[in-house]
């Protein structure tokens, strides 16, 4: 057989009992143990698992770019038939130049900020032997292939001049330019908007077929994996615990860890539907479990045998394997956490809404006498104990609205904010303490929201003191109450944020927000920085606290699953305007606004069904110069007449309180995909 | 100039002029506070009070301070730096000569310290955590804390007195060629090289480590580029931007910091000029000297800002907004 033959016939990637160890303070910590998997040419393989499971280590090991303290301790990694551990420096460079390409999570960081896109693009071809001008021409051609409409302009741009989605296209173009046998995508859509995420996933899917490259898709986003991959491997504590065809694995998991992860996901249900479960405990530190099954300490099916015998990879069907002694009993996995109570908001003619916003606008002045209307004429109310989900792409005005409510930014004259029926000043500095106490926030990233120099006790205690005005011994007991409410223990009081896990940090942030019995909490992407198992625990905690205290939430999230799971009502924003608002079920199931329809169609589901994706043409228009008429008309797939360009549609309200800003009559508006049966299925046994 | 960069430059120039004016006020006030008057300083402590008063009148030192200030600034604007009380001669040639000498010294300092500091920083970063990194880091940090006068005296003792490798005085014989001049300047340059080395090395190290661990460097490595290309095109280009800014800003600082070194090595630079003018109450000389140092500092900072903006496309773009 000639060289070329072995190349085309060998799998794109073959891991054979691959183990990787990191040396930390003289000790070898196994990060991956005996991972075996094969990705055939042209196949898309998803590798899922929580942070710390070793997913990214796989990608680094097979390209030999492990940190200096890491090494392949045993086993083999073969890319296109070549064992990477045996390659010399030149061959290794050739392999990287030709056979394998990688796309990182944050495209803004993966591009060199001080070189033009053209220079970085051309490099890929130059290394393969193209001359300067040829490299430039091929670079431009490649940008065209990732559907960039104006390649010449993009080539001349610096990375920071491009949007996030555009940057990710450039990175993907750079990766595919070498026509690699294997394309590695490491969380490529985390941090992108839902619509852009869907675009990137679509693009990867199309290009994979065009280029015939195999894809290794590393992600904690199970739905994204389900929508793109043929086969899936589940990694836990450095071991591949389950493997199989994507759809079968997600529909019928044969390992309790996979089953647990799936139960953490907010599925298609609404508030009051199936409760989320979670996986108690934490993944074990590398090397801490030397006997038995690594998942045993957190497993609901655990038996004595699990702590003694390490399970082999059982064959559980065609192409499927599970490292669980009781893989046939996974359906009996009990619920691992209590289902939180579900709160019903107080409504009615006699109930005063806790928050009333009337004609809120926010205009920013730009140099050169230009103005940006970040928010325009938003009117809405929030009832006690209600959750309002706020969705829309970046730049839609969600955060501006939150800032106005909190008083961190001042709304324009003419708007009004009332809390419990009392109007409050625009700026937080002028609000009375009662009003400040009433509205609190939970940020996306607890790392930057908590002062690293302070202990948990100080962090919560300060909020108790400053906001609730409680001092002395009462302060102590209050801190303990809060701690208990967010399921932390007094042991964590002296800890500093860096000694806590991501989930614990977010619990501290939640405790702080609740310190002074708030009436409304703005939750700004409260779980998007967290793993699914931790996310479900925080979401359950939020539900529980709401039921206990009748607090109202304004929930900002780009994860529609999270929004529909928690929200009583949903508001959809675009270019600073409210396009639609109504009961969650009516908004999701429709008839709904064409923009809502597009957002919903973009969201991948774990069942792998994506339905018909509605593509929005073009970029979000600049808010400096918004389109005339309906602001959505430049991208609207349902635009039907001149009126869309000339007249802003009225906010038509039906008797269920569902308002839509569209010229189309209700009966002509789109409806959501039906999800058969999901609402009635009770998760757990 | 209509370009964003031109506008930026104009704005900065305006700010620089404002700063310079503030410096002139401070310098003038500072000189007023110094005890004694020029007449007494020139004629000595034993001179008759009437003679001192007469001289002060002749020199114009008896006028109200505001008047003195405006005549000084007025002269300055017409290119007249004033008259030295001590030498009874225009100040300008003295200042010009001294500035030139100091610039030569500063030039030698940076010629030595930039390659050394940047090189050490980059090498330390490439070997981060290894013994060579520790040695370089500890050495550079320890060197930075040694004040110039301590290291200068030690260097003089070792290289000029004991080993006799280098001349003791920084002043070269009249008509000496560049090489001889250089030989005389190495020893005076070293104390400031020692101080600046640690600073530059640490900046370079930090910048390089950050760039090395960045995703774009990993991307470049994974493109299969040769290590040399990765290093020069991707790592250093981004890593050294802050270092270059620091170096440019430090040239101004170095000029001001020359007083000690120039005095110790008896070098007739601007630092020495300012010191002796202060001792002699030679106000015009003192003011002109300090103002020159200030102007140089401002120009150096301006150049540093321009370089930073030119090296960083993002900043360049922000100027356009």
Distance between the termini of chain B: 16 Å
Q: Which percent range describes the beta-strand content of chain B? A: under 5%
Most extensive contact: A-B, 31 and 24 residues
Main pleated sheet of chain A = 8 strands, mixed
CATH C-level label of the largest domain in chain B? Mainly Alpha
* Uncertain regions spanning at least 5 consecutive residues of chain B: none
Instruction: Characterize the largest beta sheet of chain B: strand count, sense, and whether it forms a barrel.
Output: 2 strands, antiparallel
Please give the order of strands in the largest beta sheet of chain B.
1-2
The appropriate CATH architecture of the largest domain in chain A is: 3-Layer(aba) Sandwich
Outline type of chain B: globular
Q: In order across it, which strands form the biggest sheet of chain A?
A: 6-7-8-3-9-10-12-11
| Count of helix runs of chain A | 24
Please tell me the total number of domains of chain A: 4
CATH superfamily membership of the largest domain in chain B? MetI-like
Please report the total strand number of chain B as a whole number. 2
CATH homolog superfamily of the largest domain in chain A = P-loop containing nucleotide triphosphate hydrolases
Inertia-based shape of chain A: globular
**What is the structural class of chain A?**
alpha/beta
Euclidean distance between termini CA atoms of chain A: 56 Å
* SS element count, helices of chain B: 15
Strand portion of chain A: 15-25%
Question: What does the model show?
Answer:
The complex is a heterodimer of chains A (685) and B (321). Chain A starts with a helix and ends in a 24-residue tail after the last strand. Chain A has four domains: 227 residues, Rossmann fold, CATH 3.40.50; 83 residues, no CATH class; 213 residues, 3-Layer(aba) Sandwich (Rossmann fold); 96 residues, no CATH class. Chain A contains 24 helices and 24 strands. An eight-stranded mixed sheet of chain A has the order 6-7-8-3-9-10-12-11, sandwiched between helices. An eight-stranded mixed sheet of chain A has the order 18-19-20-15-21-22-24-23, with helices on both faces. With 685 residues, chain A is an alpha/beta fold. Chain B is mainly α. Chain B folds into two domains: 89 residues, no CATH class; 225 residues, MetI-like (MetI-like fold). Chain B is 78% helix and 1% strand. Chain B has 15 helices and two strands. The chains are: A alpha/beta (685), B mainly alpha (321). At the A-B interface, helix 3, strand 6 and helix 5 of A face helix 9, helix 10 and helix 15 of B. Chain B: It is found in: Cell membrane. Chain B: It comes from Jiella pacifica. Chain B: One of its GO terms (biological process) is transmembrane transport. Chain B: It is a multi-pass membrane protein. Chain B: InterPro entries: BPD_transp_1_N, MetI-like, MetI-like_sf.
